[in-house]
Structure formats: structure tokens, C-alpha cells
Automatic annotation (TrEMBL):
Residues 8-189 form the NAD(P)-binding domain. This is NAD(P)-binding domain-containing protein. Gene3D superfamilies: NAD(P)-binding Rossmann-like Domain. GO terms for molecular function: oxidoreductase activity, acting on the CH-NH group of donors, NAD or NADP as acceptor. InterPro entries: NAD(P)-bd_dom, NAD(P)-bd_dom_sf, Polyketide_Oxido-like.
Length: 209
């Protein structure tokens, strides 16, 4: 039986991944920075992705790690740059060889081949965050752990799952909508039946909204 450790289990994606894993009968350990702030996340344990020792301690004994991290309390460059290095280091030490990551659409290529965050109409206010996420991708590519980055479309919505999703693997932005629920299903399908390695995927819900 596949076992998962989910970092960022208190967020919208992390909660759905954790719940979906339990529905499938998988062993899952949800990790948050402060369990006292997430009393509704059953079995949550404390962990810090920016600390390799903390990562190694909570990840030991699991087959697959999931990163669904986000917080406004930590600078994005530290969280996704330094944090990704620490996460990969800790996972390698713990013997966890596979990492599935929730990404963002702005790191994909637009229709003209230019990164979305570099396009002329991309809002300046969001560019620093997107650059931090691009640094995350670079750290994954350099790191020792087999990874898959699951990138939703620009329209990521908190709606019920459609029950069907489509995946593309060419690194390009696609039109459409992605629900958190369908994103979680896609990641769990990959966790239990690996089909991709060291790749960035785009996940789109099949049913239109």
C-alpha cells in the first residue's frame, strides 16, 4: 500500500489530497507548520519544509511526498527556493525517492513560447511570486529526487470535482478550468500508479464551467 506524507496539508489542495488518500485506503501523514492552527486536519503533525532535518524526520517511512505548500507569512523566495532545496535534501535523507508538487500556471509557456510571468500583460504585483515558483522548478530539476509538478490552469477553482481530467506534458499553458478536487485526483492517481518522471504537467478539468 502506497504511503504519503503531505506537506501543506492545511491548505485547499493539501486537504483534498489528504482526504482523497484516506478515501483510497492509503496511509497518509498530513504535515502543517502548527497543528494547533489546524485542529480540523485529522492526524496533523508539525513539520517545516524550510528545515531539512524536520523534513527528514516526518518523511521517514513514506513512499511518496506531496508538496502543496503556501503561506503569506514567509517570503516566497525563501519558501520556494530555499525551502525546495531543504525539502529535497530532507526527502533524500529519509529515503523518499518521489515528490509530487502543486504548481502554478504562471510558470508555463504562453502561446508565443514566452513564460506567462514574462508576458506583457502579466500583472507586476504577481511577478515576484511567480519568479519564486520558477526558482522552485529549477531546484527540482537540479535535485536528487524524482519529481512531478502538477500545474493547474489559470482558472483554479474551489468547486466539486468533475470526475474527469486531462493532462498535457508539453509545458504550455492550456485554456480551461481546474478544480482543486480534480487536481487532487490527478496527483493521487500518479502517486499510486506512476507514469511521469521529472516532468511538469498541466491538469485541466474535463467538464466546462
Amino acid at each position: 500500500m502506497t504511503s504519503l506524507v503531505v506537506f501543506g496539508a492545511g491548505g485547499r489542495a493539501g486537504r483534498r489530497i489528504t482526504a482523497g488518500a484516506r478515501e483510497r485506503g492509503l496511509r497518509v501523514t498530513p504535515v502543517v507548520r502548527d497543528p494547533a492552527r489546524h485542529t480540523d486536519v485529522e492526524g496533523a503533525v508539525a513539520g517545516d519544509v524550510t528545515d531539512a532535518d524536520s523534513v527528514a524526520a516526518v518523511a521517514a517511512g513514506h513512499d511518496v511526498a506531496v508538496s502543496a505548500i503556501y503561506t503569506a507569512d514567509i517570503d516566497a523566495t525563501k519558501l520556494y527556493g530555499d525551502g525546495t532545496r531543504a525539502l529535497l535534501d530532507g526527502l533524500a535523507r529519509a529515503g523518499v525517492g518521489r515528490l509530487l508538487v502543486v504548481g502554478v500556471a504562471s510558470t508555463l509557456d504562453g502561446p508565443d513560447g514566452v513564460k506567462v510571468y514574462d508576458s506583457a500583460d502579466f500583472p507586476d504585483a504577481y511577478r515576484p511570486f511567480s519568479l519564486a515558483r520558477a526558482a522552485e522548478v529549477a531546484e527540482l530539476e537540479r535535485g536528487p529526487v524524482d519529481w512531478v509538478l502538477f500545474t493547474p490552469t489559470m482558472q483554479l477553482v474551489d468547486e466539486p470535482g468533475t470526475g474527469s481530467y486531462a493532462i498535457t506534458a508539453d509545458g504550455r499553458l492550456v485554456d480551461g478550468t481546474t478544480t482543486y478536487a480534480d487536481l487532487a485526483v490527478a496527483m493521487l492517481d500518479e502517486a499510486v500508479s506512476p507514469k511521469h518522471h521529472r516532468a511538469q504537467l498541466t491538469v485541466r478539468s474535463q467538464t466546462a464551467f
